[in-house]
Design goal:
alpha+beta, Penicillin binding protein transpeptidase fold, cell wall biogenesis/degradation, 23 helices, transferase, transmembrane, 5-stranded mixed beta sheet, cell membrane
Length: about 725
Amino acid sequence: MLSTLLLTGCSINYPVTNKVTKSIQAVQAPVNLSKLTSAPKPTIVYDRSGLVYMKIGQDPISLRYEQIPKSLQDALVATEDHNFWTESSIDYRSILRSIYVDILTGSASQGASTIAEQLAKIVYLNDNKTLSYKLREIWLGVQIERHFTKQEILTMYLNKVFLGENTVGVYQAAMRYFGIDLVRDPNGLTLDEAAILAGLPQAPTAYDPLIHPQAARTRRNEVLQNMVKYGYITQQQASAAQRQPLGVKYHSIPSQSWDTHPLFTNVLFDYATKNGVTPQQLLNGGLKIYTTIDPKVQSAVHSVFWTGKYDSDFPGPVEGAAVFLDPKTGGLLGVAGSRQQGYVPFGLDRIYSNSSPGSSIKPIMEYAPAIQSGNWGPTSILDNQPQDFGDGYIPQNWEGPSGPSKVTLQYGLEWSQNIASVWLLKEIGLQTGVDFALKDGIPLTQQDRQQLGIAIGGMQYGVNPLEMAQAYEAFDNHGVQIKAHLINKVVNQDGQTIYQFHPSSTVVMTPATATTMTRLMQDVVDYGTGTAALVPGWGVAGKTGTVQYSAGLNSSVPNWIRDAWFDGYTPNLVGSIHIGYDTSSPQHHMTMYPLDPSANAAKIFGDIVGLAEQGSVAEKFAQGPLPASQGTASAAYNTSSQPAQSNFENPAGSSTNNTVVNNTGAVTSGLRGNTTTPGNLGDNTILGTGNSTTNSGGRGTGVSTSSVPEHNGP
């Protein structure tokens, strides 16, 4: 028994403790070796109704030992386990040392795994660093060594190892990266190609040649040097292979259902692996995954967001993400992490990519906190005159100096007035806005929390679409935010639940505040900057946002836009739409004219909702009592001669209207514009000067772009 040997060895070489004894004995359990040779089983994914939505990993192809290129075998052994062929993979002295240190430290940090142990990890274990996990891995590796030959172990490993880009095994990987069918052409891989594949097991995403070519090239060259070191090739052969270009290209694998659902499955993969499910389990482990996805919503997202319908509206490879969730449960109903047709880079999921939210942050940072305080209402008067808010920070309104000098709170949000918004945040107190945003799940750095530019989206690292959808969820759910999630439960092929979602909620605001904000943001969609999001018959509320490069002010091409947003909701859905560029530079931009990009984001939102709700009975938002008009000044609501154009009309019939003050200081009414005003007016936050920075965050560039929310529009 291994336990006897280990305990005897420990007693000779190391002091034996109860902890050592119990830890070694705890990992020994019967091993079902048939799992190593059984055919892989597809994973079944269920939708929110419990119906089968898709299967992952059908028709896997396993290679025989003689079909695996010798160069690939050599490259893998030289890199992962150079003693594999020459001696037993079980080095008891090293095991004794690592076990003793790991037990005493409570971690599993000692030593690298052998190929047999890695095979055990793939087939039997979840990926974690606990001590019992490492001990179990060693025990299983011993059993594998006892019952299988070296050739069998290596063949099983190379057929089961995850190699990135949704591939399991070298057959799929050779097809994915090089378009080579190893069944038909076992000698089809060149030496440099074999080295690329052999370098992937340690970190398949980090060394993915399609996403990180430089890292993949460095890793390939390391593998080739390992082959020289252990006598598999000469230095001359290695140098020749190192001079070769990567030569990789994305190829579809016909037997993979994954390739037919890329928008959903990339997000599913990200979510599952972040919650302890291994890639091998997901792709061919026979799992049952119970998700929150709504096929109708997901189909609408795919039809609108990914089919290129709006490509003519954007110059160049504009990217983006779409997230829709259920406001009552937090379950994700439809998702898209890319706008590309064709290849979607594995792991590049833009629902987690950060950027400045522009004006779409305004309801969260200042308007809802103001309403929540009880000191402000829709008719409260805000100062909208150009002014220095300190340290030379002078924000601008999108329409320039011709706009009104004083506006109601309602008008300020409806027409996305930057100066009034910054002024409001200053009046309620920066800390008040920060506290509210943090409670609503907006990630704020210490730098963000110290400057007023955050009122219109000036953030150090920004926010991602999933966070924005979750933040707007509180407006749609009576002030309560429920944690967003995609998977409710994962059950393995043995019937054991290996992941279970546990819901959690946060009370962000009172129901009255949520109701008032909903009616304010209905005005944005019905009459203001977001009219492109209108869905006939449905109640829609939301806010637009754009982010502009500072170069746009001084360039011959004005109003260069980097990012555009629409965040909104209906009684049944909450959604966030972001469109923008992966590369943060003025060379990658959208323009304000002839159509503001935020109007396109709003249009995408409206089209998705329209398709998703097709055939459903249209619903409006429930109406509640309005807060009293409060603040330092109040508009006179006695102008029945002007068209109302507002969701704040009193049901008793008394006429109410939005009121602003023009540049001369005279109070006037009805300056909202008419109901046919298109949602195509500039809503942009300028990046490039001032006291705030914006970073592309999850886009992978890591480049901090000095930003200033100065000029922002809808």
